[in-house]
Amino acid sequence: MTGFALFLARRLLGIAVLVWVVTLAAFGLFRLGVPSQLADIQINAQLGPGEPATWQYVHYLVRLLHGNLGESLTVGLSVDTVLWRALPPTLSLVIGGMLLWLVTGILAGMVSALRPRSWADRIVTSAASATVVVPTFLLGLLLLDLFSYLAQQGFLWMQPGYVPFTHSPWQWLGRMILPWIALAATQAGVTARLTRSAVLEVLGEDYIRTAHAKGLSRRRVFWCHVLRPSIVALIPSISIGLSTLLGAAAIIDQIFTLGGVGQTFLTAAKENDLMVIMGTVLMTVILVALINLIADICQVLADPRIRLLPLRPRGRRSMPRPWVSAG
Description:
- It is a single chain.
- The radius of gyration is 26 Å and the shape is globular.
- Helix 4 (79-114) packs antiparallel against helix 5 (119-133), helix 5 crosses helix 7 and helix 9 packs parallel to helix 10 (261-271).
- The protein has helices at 2-33, 37-47, 53-65, 79-114, 119-133, 136-152, 169-203, 206-213, 218-255, 261-271, 274-302.
- It is mainly alpha-helical.
């Protein structure tokens, strides 16, 4: 437990340092790097007019430690309120897209690996290659055209926009299905191909042949000896895919006008709303860092070969004495 506590403390400290570096880089970029009269007006109005950039940055850090991200220039609300309102659509999009991506990609890859060179294998491989090639924004636009076609046919359950789950779960589901597909398609194709390779590699191991030679059924061999090593091999790629998913969510959010964090960020960038931009960047960096931390913890829990041991002080090691011939 001590090793895990040290590991967690180091990672959380690293996240804190990363957030500090991001705030320093973003503030320096808008205050000193890129000359912008509108940005200077916002910084002077909220962080002290006429003060040096260093003291303004200190004021920003102090307010940030108290949970104050500043005021929005265009909306007239605090950045905390703006991001809090934009969070439910983003969470609905990301969580639903992630579940669809993982379930579809892992199941398709396993079916393809367990039936190599079959029609199922060829269909899964072709579909995975197609989804990887098609960009996310293009797939989103195609599905948006599908929205319009269904509306012309009188099928109004699927529409752009966002309806809160608490307002109407049925309408919420209808508004989120096509955004989930657009968000999950590319990552599902990548995961299907990686799952196929991981399962085929595990099936070629000697202990799998030994399990079959002992008379174990194929189902038991798969669930007890194939599934877990295959999933462990996928965890690093899943953490990378989640980071990519957050970036694609901004595009899908804008295409389907969900009103989430991605659309809020793009609107703020268009209007040069500095505080909203910095608050969105901070939220995204923290989410990506926490996702990577959770993925590392899951890999430790899933793979018994990985151990988190406490750091030992480096001391002088006693070297073995060289063997000297008696002659």
